[in-house]
What does this fold into?
Amino acid sequence: MTKENEIKDIAALSFEQALDQLEKIVNDLERGDVALDESIKTYERGEALKRHCATLLQAAEDKVEKIRVGADGTAKGTEPLD
It folds into this structure.
């Protein structure tokens, strides 16, 4: 798979799918039963998956809003979560 295709492949993954793949990569590397050149490729894919997960998580956090409550206890609107 070319680098460009790999990037497109990762970009199409949901957060959960990317996290599952990342966990598998970590387990494979921790076991140490992967050849050195394959370990490097696997590590690079893991880094790309980590960045993808971080991007998706940040996007989700940006969507979370905090409800503002007035003095009488009723909702008065929303504002970004700090």
